[in-house]
Amino acid sequence: KAKGAGRKRFHIYEAAFKYDHVENFIHELELSHAIEKEELYVQYQLIYHPVRETVIGAEALLRWNCESRGTVQPNSFIPVAEETGLIVDIGYWVIRRACQDWHLLKKDYGSEFKVSVNISRVQLNEKDFVQQILRILKEEHVAPGAVELEITESTTMHSMQDVQQTLSQLRANGFTIALDDFGTGYSSLSMLTLLPIDKLKIDRSFIADGNVPLISAMLAMASALHLQVIAEGIETYEQYIMLKEMACWGIQGYFINKPADLALLPKQSEIFVNGVGKI
Ligand code: C2E
Ligand code: MG
Ligand code: MG
Ligand code: MG
What we know:
Elements: H1 2-32, E1 40-49, E2 54-66, E3 70-72, H2 74-84, H3 87-109, E4 114-118, H4 121-124, H5 129-139, E5 147-152, H6 153-157, H7 160-172, E6 176-182, H8 191-194, E7 199-202, H9 204-208, H10 212-224, E8 228-231, H11 237-245, E9 250-251
Parallel strand pairs: 2-4, 4-5, 5-6, 6-7, 7-8, 8-9
Antiparallel strand pairs: 1-2, 2-3
Helix pairs in contact: 1-2, 3-5
The structure holds ligand C2E and magnesium ion (3 copies).
């Protein structure tokens, strides 16, 4: 009897496994046509300087409007795109779109405004990544100084030397580099001095936990290393005031705006009037 039940469980497991496999395959197939079918789009989340009270940038966040499953969030399709290598073309598509949108965004937020783009480890590993990105910026008439590249800590785990070299080249060409989701990876703190970066983005889990001693320690450390800090995931007025008082360089989060289509972004003057954060 026990044996029978075991076998039944096995069959269920096996079926579920196969189903998963087919699902993934379909997912990949659909994703491979997403660019040509114009199913990808970008939403923006503003980056705000709480001391100057001005918008200083916006992060491009990728979305996929899939025919069979509706809007798919990046956390579920970017891993698939990375495994299959599709992220390379998708990544170039995002960079081009962000450049095109920068021309419109700077009209509202000023010419100091930077657009931030997330870059995957797989993209950085491309031999001609620096050349390709420079070509796209040239075609779109955007200077590298207007673009910030966000890399995650896990990116930097693999082949440190190659990453170091690519980032140095990018910086030499005028791009700024931000280390995303800081504090959540497995890297050592010494990487902060080894990697050619300009900014740290404190992961939103530290903000959500309200870990004030840790946040102020991260700010002090960043300042000693001459790195600017952006705090992610600011959702409340209390969090906003806390980071403003700590003179955090930039903040980002639902308190300022939820990621939105370009046309729906709040203007500089609307942020604390129509936005979530009425002060
Ligand atoms: P990320 O770069 O750390 O982006 C911040 C994520 O936090 C975004 O999720 C954003 O919507 C969310 N977020 C912002 N403010 C708040 C807040 O106040 N509260 C909460 N709970 N969440 C907030 P999203 O858009 O789902 O993106 C998830 C991740 O997907 C990004 O994390 C980034 O790593 C990746 N990603 C997005 N677009 C791209 C892309 O074009 N290329 C690559 N390679 N990765 C991307
Ligand atoms: Mg990011
Ligand atoms: Mg992040
Ligand atoms: Mg993240």
